[in-house]
Amino acid sequence: MNILYELKNIKHYFDGKKVLDVEHLTLEKNQIVGFFGPNGSGKSTLFSILAFICKPIEGEIFLENLNKIDLQMKKDIVVLPQNPYLLKRTVFDNIAYGLKIRGEVENIDKKVEEALSMVGLETSFSKRKWSQLSGGEAQRVALAARLILKPKILILDEPTSGVDTNSAQLIKEAILHAKQKYNTTIFISSHDYNWLNHISDKKIALFQGHLFENKNINLLFSPWQKDDNGCLVKVFMDNQRLLIPNSQSKKRDSILMINSSDINISKDSFLLGNQNSLLGSIISIFQDEKEEYLQVEFSISGVIFNCSISKAKFESQKLFPGDKIVVSFDLNNIKWL
Ligand SMILES: Nc1ncnc2c1ncn2[C@@H]1O[C@H](COP(=O)(O)OP(=O)(O)OP(=O)(O)O)[C@@H](O)[C@H]1O
Protein backbone atom coordinates (compact mmCIF):
# COMPACT_ATOMS: atom_id res chain seq x y z
CA MET A 1 0.00 0.00 0.00
CA ASN A 2 1.25 3.44 -0.95
CA ILE A 3 0.50 5.42 2.19
CA LEU A 4 0.41 9.20 1.99
CA TYR A 5 -1.13 10.14 5.34
CA GLU A 6 -1.32 8.42 8.67
CA LEU A 7 -3.39 9.88 11.52
CA LYS A 8 -3.06 8.51 15.03
CA ASN A 9 -5.41 9.29 17.92
CA ILE A 10 -6.39 12.67 16.53
CA LYS A 11 -8.74 14.66 18.74
CA HIS A 12 -9.81 18.21 18.15
CA TYR A 13 -11.94 20.48 20.30
CA PHE A 14 -13.60 23.85 19.87
CA ASP A 15 -14.59 25.70 23.05
CA GLY A 16 -14.00 22.50 25.03
CA LYS A 17 -16.35 20.48 22.81
CA LYS A 18 -14.86 17.49 21.00
CA VAL A 19 -15.55 17.85 17.28
CA LEU A 20 -13.17 15.22 15.91
CA ASP A 21 -12.04 11.87 17.26
CA VAL A 22 -10.05 9.75 14.82
CA GLU A 23 -8.34 6.73 16.32
CA HIS A 24 -6.44 5.69 13.21
CA LEU A 25 -6.66 6.58 9.55
CA THR A 26 -4.41 5.91 6.59
CA LEU A 27 -4.92 7.54 3.22
CA GLU A 28 -3.28 6.23 0.09
CA LYS A 29 -1.62 8.10 -2.76
CA ASN A 30 -3.43 8.83 -6.01
CA GLN A 31 -6.92 8.09 -4.73
CA ILE A 32 -10.06 10.15 -4.68
CA VAL A 33 -11.42 9.92 -1.16
CA GLY A 34 -15.00 11.03 -0.56
CA PHE A 35 -15.94 12.24 2.93
CA PHE A 36 -19.66 11.86 3.63
CA GLY A 37 -21.32 13.38 6.64
CA PRO A 38 -24.05 15.72 7.82
CA ASN A 39 -23.49 19.38 8.74
CA GLY A 40 -21.12 19.76 11.65
CA SER A 41 -19.78 16.21 11.51
CA GLY A 42 -16.18 17.45 11.34
CA LYS A 43 -15.31 17.29 7.62
CA SER A 44 -13.89 20.82 7.33
CA THR A 45 -12.01 20.40 10.61
CA LEU A 46 -10.44 17.19 9.33
CA PHE A 47 -9.54 18.92 6.05
CA SER A 48 -7.81 21.77 7.93
CA ILE A 49 -5.80 19.18 9.81
CA LEU A 50 -4.88 17.30 6.60
CA ALA A 51 -3.80 20.61 5.06
CA PHE A 52 -1.70 21.42 8.16
CA ILE A 53 -3.69 24.64 8.53
CA CYS A 54 -4.93 23.54 11.94
CA LYS A 55 -2.92 21.51 14.43
CA PRO A 56 -5.01 18.93 16.26
CA ILE A 57 -5.18 19.38 20.00
CA GLU A 58 -4.26 15.73 20.53
CA GLY A 59 -2.65 13.08 18.33
CA GLU A 60 -0.21 12.90 15.48
CA ILE A 61 -0.44 13.34 11.73
CA PHE A 62 2.18 11.94 9.39
CA LEU A 63 2.58 12.97 5.77
CA GLU A 64 4.89 10.55 3.93
CA ASN A 65 6.07 9.31 7.32
CA LEU A 66 6.98 12.79 8.55
CA ASN A 67 5.09 14.50 11.34
CA LYS A 68 6.62 17.90 10.68
CA ILE A 69 6.30 19.35 7.23
CA ASP A 70 8.37 22.05 5.60
CA LEU A 71 7.28 24.86 3.31
CA GLN A 72 7.89 22.79 0.18
CA MET A 73 5.58 20.02 1.42
CA LYS A 74 2.99 22.59 2.41
CA LYS A 75 3.04 23.90 -1.18
CA ASP A 76 2.10 20.41 -2.36
CA ILE A 77 -1.24 20.67 -0.54
CA VAL A 78 -3.81 22.89 -2.20
CA VAL A 79 -7.23 23.61 -0.72
CA LEU A 80 -10.44 24.79 -2.32
CA PRO A 81 -12.42 26.05 0.68
CA GLN A 82 -16.17 25.86 1.08
CA ASN A 83 -16.77 29.44 -0.08
CA PRO A 84 -13.81 30.22 -2.31
CA TYR A 85 -12.79 33.82 -2.65
CA LEU A 86 -12.16 35.31 -6.08
CA LEU A 87 -9.92 38.35 -6.48
CA LYS A 88 -11.88 41.33 -7.76
CA ARG A 89 -10.00 41.11 -11.04
CA THR A 90 -10.20 39.14 -14.28
CA VAL A 91 -10.52 35.38 -14.57
CA PHE A 92 -6.97 35.31 -15.95
CA ASP A 93 -5.60 37.13 -12.89
CA ASN A 94 -7.45 34.76 -10.59
CA ILE A 95 -6.18 31.61 -12.27
CA ALA A 96 -2.62 32.88 -12.76
CA TYR A 97 -2.34 34.24 -9.19
CA GLY A 98 -0.96 31.11 -7.51
CA LEU A 99 1.69 30.52 -10.16
CA LYS A 100 2.76 34.19 -10.08
CA ILE A 101 3.12 34.06 -6.28
CA ARG A 102 5.36 31.02 -6.76
CA GLY A 103 7.35 32.90 -9.42
CA GLU A 104 6.43 30.35 -12.08
CA VAL A 105 5.50 32.73 -14.88
CA GLU A 106 6.89 30.85 -17.86
CA ASN A 107 4.19 30.01 -20.45
CA ILE A 108 1.59 31.38 -18.10
CA ASP A 109 -0.93 32.22 -20.87
CA LYS A 110 -0.86 28.64 -22.10
CA LYS A 111 -1.16 27.26 -18.58
CA VAL A 112 -4.19 29.44 -17.84
CA GLU A 113 -5.76 28.31 -21.10
CA GLU A 114 -5.15 24.67 -20.15
CA ALA A 115 -6.62 25.14 -16.66
CA LEU A 116 -9.71 26.84 -18.13
CA SER A 117 -10.19 24.01 -20.56
CA MET A 118 -9.89 21.43 -17.75
CA VAL A 119 -12.93 22.97 -16.05
CA GLY A 120 -14.84 23.26 -19.34
CA LEU A 121 -14.46 27.02 -19.86
CA GLU A 122 -13.41 28.61 -23.15
CA THR A 123 -10.23 30.68 -23.49
CA SER A 124 -12.33 33.82 -23.97
CA PHE A 125 -13.37 33.56 -20.32
CA SER A 126 -9.93 34.70 -19.21
CA LYS A 127 -10.84 38.31 -20.02
CA ARG A 128 -14.05 38.28 -18.00
CA LYS A 129 -14.26 40.13 -14.73
CA TRP A 130 -14.94 38.17 -11.54
CA SER A 131 -18.34 39.89 -11.36
CA GLN A 132 -19.41 38.59 -14.78
CA LEU A 133 -19.52 34.92 -13.76
CA SER A 134 -22.42 32.72 -12.74
CA GLY A 135 -22.12 30.78 -9.47
CA GLY A 136 -21.12 27.59 -11.31
CA GLU A 137 -18.57 29.41 -13.47
CA ALA A 138 -17.06 31.16 -10.45
CA GLN A 139 -16.69 27.80 -8.71
CA ARG A 140 -14.98 26.34 -11.78
CA VAL A 141 -12.63 29.34 -12.03
CA ALA A 142 -11.73 28.82 -8.36
CA LEU A 143 -11.03 25.15 -9.13
CA ALA A 144 -8.95 26.05 -12.22
CA ALA A 145 -6.88 28.38 -10.00
CA ARG A 146 -5.96 25.28 -7.93
CA LEU A 147 -5.52 22.85 -10.81
CA ILE A 148 -2.99 25.11 -12.53
CA LEU A 149 -0.66 24.40 -9.59
CA LYS A 150 -0.70 20.66 -10.46
CA PRO A 151 -0.96 19.84 -6.77
CA LYS A 152 0.17 16.60 -5.22
CA ILE A 153 -2.75 16.80 -2.78
CA LEU A 154 -5.98 18.63 -3.54
CA ILE A 155 -8.60 19.17 -0.85
CA LEU A 156 -12.03 20.18 -2.08
CA ASP A 157 -14.51 21.25 0.59
CA GLU A 158 -17.97 21.16 -1.00
CA PRO A 159 -16.90 21.94 -4.58
CA THR A 160 -20.43 21.40 -5.85
CA SER A 161 -22.34 23.57 -3.41
CA GLY A 162 -24.68 25.90 -5.25
CA VAL A 163 -23.76 24.69 -8.74
CA ASP A 164 -26.09 23.15 -11.32
CA THR A 165 -25.79 19.59 -12.62
CA ASN A 166 -23.84 20.68 -15.71
CA SER A 167 -21.19 22.46 -13.63
CA ALA A 168 -21.13 19.53 -11.18
CA GLN A 169 -20.40 17.21 -14.11
CA LEU A 170 -17.64 19.47 -15.43
CA ILE A 171 -16.12 19.71 -11.94
CA LYS A 172 -16.18 15.92 -11.74
CA GLU A 173 -14.40 15.58 -15.08
CA ALA A 174 -11.76 18.13 -14.04
CA ILE A 175 -11.12 16.22 -10.82
CA LEU A 176 -10.77 12.88 -12.62
CA HIS A 177 -8.47 14.55 -15.13
CA ALA A 178 -6.23 15.92 -12.33
CA LYS A 179 -5.99 12.48 -10.77
CA GLN A 180 -5.01 10.92 -14.07
CA LYS A 181 -2.78 13.64 -15.46
CA TYR A 182 -1.00 14.92 -12.35
CA ASN A 183 -1.35 11.85 -10.07
CA THR A 184 -3.07 14.14 -7.60
CA THR A 185 -4.51 12.64 -4.43
CA ILE A 186 -7.89 14.24 -3.87
CA PHE A 187 -10.04 14.56 -0.75
CA ILE A 188 -13.59 15.80 -1.30
CA SER A 189 -16.64 16.52 0.78
CA SER A 190 -20.02 17.19 -0.74
CA HIS A 191 -23.63 17.08 0.34
CA ASP A 192 -24.43 15.87 -3.15
CA TYR A 193 -23.98 12.31 -2.01
CA ASN A 194 -24.73 10.71 -5.37
CA TRP A 195 -22.15 12.88 -7.11
CA LEU A 196 -19.59 12.08 -4.42
CA ASN A 197 -20.42 8.39 -4.46
CA HIS A 198 -19.72 8.18 -8.18
CA ILE A 199 -16.39 9.96 -8.08
CA SER A 200 -14.85 8.39 -4.95
CA ASP A 201 -12.37 5.49 -5.01
CA LYS A 202 -12.66 5.25 -1.25
CA LYS A 203 -15.53 6.42 0.93
CA ILE A 204 -15.28 7.61 4.50
CA ALA A 205 -18.26 8.56 6.61
CA LEU A 206 -18.07 11.07 9.44
CA PHE A 207 -20.65 11.11 12.17
CA GLN A 208 -20.33 13.42 15.18
CA GLY A 209 -16.57 13.61 14.70
CA HIS A 210 -16.15 9.84 14.42
CA LEU A 211 -14.94 8.23 11.28
CA PHE A 212 -16.19 5.08 9.58
CA GLU A 213 -14.34 3.51 6.65
CA ASN A 214 -15.99 1.49 3.96
CA LYS A 215 -14.46 -1.82 4.89
CA ASN A 216 -16.37 -1.68 8.20
CA ILE A 217 -19.49 0.02 6.96
CA ASN A 218 -22.00 -0.01 4.15
CA LEU A 219 -23.50 3.19 2.86
CA LEU A 220 -26.92 2.90 1.29
CA PHE A 221 -27.68 5.88 -0.89
CA SER A 222 -30.84 7.51 -2.24
CA PRO A 223 -33.23 7.15 -3.98
CA TRP A 224 -35.53 6.06 -1.18
CA GLN A 225 -39.23 5.46 -1.38
CA LYS A 226 -41.74 5.91 1.45
CA ASP A 227 -44.15 3.20 2.58
CA ASP A 228 -47.75 3.86 3.73
CA ASN A 229 -46.47 4.72 7.24
CA GLY A 230 -43.93 7.21 5.92
CA CYS A 231 -40.94 4.93 6.58
CA LEU A 232 -38.12 4.85 4.07
CA VAL A 233 -37.84 1.79 1.87
CA LYS A 234 -34.93 0.89 -0.37
CA VAL A 235 -36.35 -0.69 -3.48
CA PHE A 236 -33.67 -2.59 -5.38
CA MET A 237 -33.68 -3.00 -9.17
CA ASP A 238 -35.12 -6.52 -8.83
CA ASN A 239 -37.95 -5.11 -6.65
CA GLN A 240 -36.63 -6.54 -3.38
CA ARG A 241 -37.40 -4.11 -0.55
CA LEU A 242 -35.53 -3.18 2.59
CA LEU A 243 -37.85 -1.38 5.01
CA ILE A 244 -36.14 0.87 7.54
CA PRO A 245 -38.21 1.03 10.74
CA ASN A 246 -38.71 4.35 12.57
CA SER A 247 -37.41 6.35 9.60
CA GLN A 248 -40.45 8.62 9.17
CA SER A 249 -38.45 11.78 9.93
CA LYS A 250 -35.68 11.01 7.41
CA LYS A 251 -35.45 12.72 4.06
CA ARG A 252 -35.44 10.86 0.76
CA ASP A 253 -31.84 11.94 0.02
CA SER A 254 -30.46 10.52 3.28
CA ILE A 255 -27.63 8.01 3.46
CA LEU A 256 -28.02 4.99 5.66
CA MET A 257 -24.93 3.60 7.34
CA ILE A 258 -25.01 -0.09 8.27
CA ASN A 259 -22.08 -1.67 10.09
CA SER A 260 -20.63 -4.70 8.35
CA SER A 261 -20.98 -6.56 11.64
CA ASP A 262 -24.77 -6.03 11.51
CA ILE A 263 -25.10 -8.04 8.32
CA ASN A 264 -25.45 -11.80 8.37
CA ILE A 265 -25.16 -13.95 5.25
CA SER A 266 -26.23 -17.53 4.88
CA LYS A 267 -27.15 -20.18 2.34
CA ASP A 268 -30.19 -21.18 4.47
CA SER A 269 -32.97 -20.18 2.11
CA PHE A 270 -35.70 -20.53 4.78
CA LEU A 271 -34.37 -17.22 6.22
CA LEU A 272 -35.63 -15.43 3.12
CA GLY A 273 -39.13 -15.21 4.61
CA ASN A 274 -37.87 -13.04 7.50
CA GLN A 275 -38.32 -9.29 7.44
CA ASN A 276 -35.17 -7.51 6.21
CA SER A 277 -33.76 -10.65 4.65
CA LEU A 278 -32.98 -10.29 0.97
CA LEU A 279 -31.44 -12.38 -1.76
CA GLY A 280 -27.90 -11.50 -2.83
CA SER A 281 -24.89 -13.06 -4.50
CA ILE A 282 -21.27 -13.25 -3.42
CA ILE A 283 -18.76 -11.28 -5.49
CA SER A 284 -15.51 -11.99 -3.66
CA ILE A 285 -14.12 -13.41 -0.44
CA PHE A 286 -10.79 -12.35 1.01
CA GLN A 287 -8.77 -12.54 4.19
CA ASP A 288 -9.73 -10.10 6.95
CA GLU A 289 -7.06 -8.37 9.06
CA LYS A 290 -8.21 -10.64 11.86
CA GLU A 291 -6.96 -14.10 10.94
CA GLU A 292 -10.07 -16.02 11.96
CA TYR A 293 -12.36 -13.87 9.77
CA LEU A 294 -12.99 -13.45 6.06
CA GLN A 295 -14.28 -10.35 4.34
CA VAL A 296 -17.13 -11.00 1.93
CA GLU A 297 -18.20 -8.61 -0.80
CA PHE A 298 -21.66 -9.29 -2.18
CA SER A 299 -24.30 -7.64 -4.29
CA ILE A 300 -28.03 -7.19 -3.96
CA SER A 301 -29.28 -6.41 -7.43
CA GLY A 302 -26.10 -4.50 -8.31
CA VAL A 303 -25.71 -2.65 -5.00
CA ILE A 304 -22.44 -3.70 -3.36
CA PHE A 305 -22.17 -4.51 0.36
CA ASN A 306 -19.57 -6.08 2.58
CA CYS A 307 -19.57 -8.08 5.78
CA SER A 308 -17.21 -10.35 7.61
CA ILE A 309 -17.75 -13.99 8.49
CA SER A 310 -15.84 -16.43 10.63
CA LYS A 311 -13.68 -19.03 8.95
CA ALA A 312 -15.75 -21.72 10.68
CA LYS A 313 -18.95 -20.41 9.09
CA PHE A 314 -17.27 -20.05 5.71
CA GLU A 315 -16.26 -23.70 5.86
CA SER A 316 -19.56 -25.05 7.20
CA GLN A 317 -21.63 -23.11 4.64
CA LYS A 318 -19.20 -23.74 1.78
CA LEU A 319 -19.46 -20.18 0.49
CA PHE A 320 -17.93 -19.28 -2.87
CA PRO A 321 -18.01 -16.30 -5.25
CA GLY A 322 -21.12 -16.47 -7.42
CA ASP A 323 -23.17 -18.25 -4.73
CA LYS A 324 -26.68 -17.03 -3.98
CA ILE A 325 -27.04 -16.02 -0.33
CA VAL A 326 -29.68 -14.76 2.05
CA VAL A 327 -28.62 -11.43 3.51
CA SER A 328 -30.16 -10.51 6.87
CA PHE A 329 -29.83 -6.95 8.12
CA ASP A 330 -29.94 -6.07 11.81
CA LEU A 331 -31.18 -2.48 11.65
CA ASN A 332 -30.98 -1.70 15.37
CA ASN A 333 -27.61 0.07 15.16
CA ILE A 334 -28.01 2.01 11.91
CA LYS A 335 -26.94 5.64 11.57
CA TRP A 336 -28.20 8.27 9.16
CA LEU A 337 -25.89 10.74 7.45
N1 LIG B 1 -13.70 27.93 14.49
C1 LIG B 1 -14.64 27.26 15.16
N2 LIG B 1 -15.01 27.64 16.41
C2 LIG B 1 -15.92 26.93 17.11
N3 LIG B 1 -16.55 25.84 16.64
C3 LIG B 1 -16.23 25.43 15.40
C4 LIG B 1 -15.26 26.11 14.60
N4 LIG B 1 -15.16 25.47 13.42
C5 LIG B 1 -16.01 24.44 13.47
N5 LIG B 1 -16.65 24.41 14.66
C6 LIG B 1 -17.64 23.39 15.10
O1 LIG B 1 -17.03 22.13 14.92
C7 LIG B 1 -17.99 21.17 14.47
C8 LIG B 1 -17.49 20.55 13.17
O2 LIG B 1 -17.51 21.56 12.18
P1 LIG B 1 -17.02 21.31 10.69
O3 LIG B 1 -17.09 22.62 9.98
O4 LIG B 1 -15.73 20.61 10.72
O5 LIG B 1 -18.14 20.33 10.15
P2 LIG B 1 -18.52 19.94 8.64
O6 LIG B 1 -18.78 18.49 8.66
O7 LIG B 1 -17.51 20.47 7.72
O8 LIG B 1 -19.90 20.72 8.46
P3 LIG B 1 -20.59 21.30 7.10
O9 LIG B 1 -21.05 20.13 6.31
O10 LIG B 1 -21.72 22.09 7.63
O11 LIG B 1 -19.56 22.12 6.41
C9 LIG B 1 -19.31 21.93 14.35
O12 LIG B 1 -20.06 21.70 15.52
C10 LIG B 1 -18.90 23.38 14.27
O13 LIG B 1 -19.89 24.22 14.81
TrEMBL record:
The record's GO molecular-function terms, alphabetically, read: ATP binding; ATP hydrolysis activity
Name the UniProt key words of this record, in alphabetical order.
ATP-binding, Nucleotide-binding, Transport
Q: Where does the ABC transporter domain lie?
A: 5-233
InterPro entries attached here? AAA+_ATPase, ABC_transporter-like_ATP-bd, ABC_transpr_CbiO/EcfA_su, Mo/tungstate-bd_C_term_dom, P-loop_NTPase
One example of a Gene Ontology biological process annotation: transmembrane transport
Q: Which SUPFAM superfamilies match?
A: MOP-like, P-loop containing nucleoside triphosphate hydrolases
Q: Which GO terms describe its cellular component?
A: membrane
Entry superkingdom: Bacteria
Which CDD domains does the protein's record reference? ABC_cobalt_CbiO_domain1
* A Pfam family this chain is assigned to: ABC_tran
The signal peptide here is: none
Q: Could you tell me which PANTHER family the record lists for this protein?
A: ABC TRANSPORTER I FAMILY MEMBER 17 (PTHR43423)
Q: What is this protein called?
A: Energy-coupling factor ABC transporter ATP-binding protein
State the organism of origin.
Aliarcobacter cibarius
